[in-house]
Amino acid sequence: MLIRADGAARGNPGPASAGAVLIDADQPGANDPAAPPVAVIAQPLGIRTNNYAEWTAVVLALERAAEMGAVEVELVLDSKLVVEQLMGRWRVKEPTLIRLHRQALSTLSRFTRWTARHEGRASNVAADALANLALDDPAAAGRTEAASGREVQALWSKGGSDPGTTDPEPEAWICATCGVQYPLSLEPPVACPICEDDRQYVGWDGQRWTTMAQLVAAGHRNHLTEEEPGLVSIGTEPTFAIGQRALLVRTPAGNVLWDCITLLDPATVARVRELGGIAAIAISHPHFYDAMTSWSAAFGDCPVFIHAADAEWVQYPGPGLRLWEGDSKEILPGVTLINTGGHFPGSTVLHWAGGAGGRGVLLTGDSITVVQDRHWVSFMYSFPNLIPLADAQVRRIVEVLRPFRYERIYSLWEGRVTSTDGPGALQRSAERYLSHR
Ligand SMILES: [Zn+2]
Ligand SMILES: [Zn+2]
Predict the structure, then answer these.
(1) Domain-terminating residue out of 122, 148, 163
(2) Closest residue by Cα to residue 273 from 313, 302, 244
(3) Of 124, 139, 163, which residue sits at a domain end?
(4) How far is the CA of 318 from the centre of ligand 2 (A)?
(5) How far does residue 78's CA lie from ligand 1's centre (Å)?
(6) What pLDDT score does 92 carry?
(7) Judgement on whether residues 30 and 89 belong to the same structural domain of the protein
(8) Band of the pLDDT at 162, cuts 50, 70, 90?
(9) How far apart are CA 105 and CA 101, in angstroms?
């Protein structure tokens, strides 16, 4: 069942209504916004907010679809907010909406599969017309609900609807070059400070912005791969921004997401939940802030550990943000963050004592990068702009890691892993680096 739903409120709050069309997704041309529906909703709601009306339209349409025996549903909404909240990427905060959100999720759990996506108002004219009809002529709306698909279709195919009644929706914009997501705003930010810094770069076509929905629509998907027992990489295909992968460290005390990627879709949330969810997120440095706040929100506002020395770079602070200080911090038993500095003052690596069968592993992002010859690593102030790191900072990285035992080093891209003798690789590589300076 394809569901196009829409809420309307004339004033916020004001007289409100819910409209929806339910379309048999197997019929030819089901995706056409004017496809004849198998059922409709046109219901006045009294004095309500616009978001209440949007959510109620979804709830009523889902309940109708369930009654009609739908097995899979696809929701198409012109409310960005509702789509993001349904997908678990944005949090619902208002108590009334929390109730409607729960109701929607509980109905959705009755279907074997569901998705929700955002489309502009132009493709939701049918639902919009029904919502407006419920306000203008509630009696006619009641008759409409009982009418046949063809009769109902005549309502909006005449083109009498007024699509301009809802406010534009704010968006959590994403920088297309570095993948970092910004807090909700109607217009994209004027610039991306992460890219304007001399360690990164503004894209060759200028600053460009995208959104989570556009990434999904462009066909980006995440794939999960077991790197070794207890360590799962999460990467995006086709790659996006700088193309790194995140790593999920699985421990008896909970899972830690090391670094982050931008794309978060329901399939990823479901897979990660199957693996035990996320107890904490830890980020090596600002290039991997990505959509960390959306990830945290999708996993119960779990803590996001960032070294306080990089606090100025946090673009989208969420309720989970934990700025930590000092040289190291054990965030779960056997999982320790170590501040190496270098690439950024707050650059951090993660030591997982249980990795490599108890011999330990080091996850380094690009604070320490495994190079093409994977027996070696290197250190840079900027990788894309080839600016080397000062000698003293390379020495500090080696010193601060000396107490730790580990076998392998995992850096930011798939396959960039030293297989044995991590400490030897670090020591040799630091000496080689310094001898060429
Ligand atoms: Zn950027
Ligand atoms: Zn970096």
Answers:
(1) 163
(2) 302
(3) 163
(4) 22
(5) 27
(6) 86
(7) yes
(8) very low
(9) 6
Q: State the SS3 of 225-254.
A: EEEECCEEEEEEECCCCCCCCEEEEEECCE
Q: What is the pLDDT of residues 239-258, one digit of tens each?
A: 999 999 999 999 999 999 99
CA of 288 to the centre of ligand 2 (A): 7
Which H or E run contains 405?
A: none
Nearest to 363 by CA among 371, 353, 373: 353
Q: How far is the CA of 177 from the centre of ligand 1 (A)?
A: 5
Which is it for strands 304-307 and 321-324: parallel, antiparallel or unpaired? parallel
Query: What tokens appear for 129 in the block?
Result: 């017309």
Mean pLDDT of 333-340: 98
Note the ligand closest to the C-alpha atom of 191. 1
- Of 364, 363, 378, 339, nearest to 231 (Cα)? 363
How many CB atoms are closer than 10 A to CB 49? 19
What is the domain count for the chain? 2
Is this structure's pTM higher than 0.70?
no
Looking at the CA of 181, name the nearest ligand.
1
State the distance from the centre of ligand 1 to the C-alpha of 384, rounded, in angstroms: 13
| Residue 178 falls inside a structural domain | no
Domain that holds residue 68: 2-163
Per residue in 363-386, pLDDT tens? 999 899 999 999 999 999 999 999
> Which ligand is closest to the CA of 412, given by its number?
2
Ligand nearest to the CA of 174: 1
Is the pLDDT at 104 greater than 90, yes or no?
Answer: yes
Helix axes 95-108, 50-67, angle to 10 degrees: 20
* Residues whose CB falls within 8 Å of the CB of residue 85, separated by 6 or more in sequence, listed in order: 91, 92, 97, 101
Instruction: Tell me the CATH number at 329.
Output: 3.60.15.10
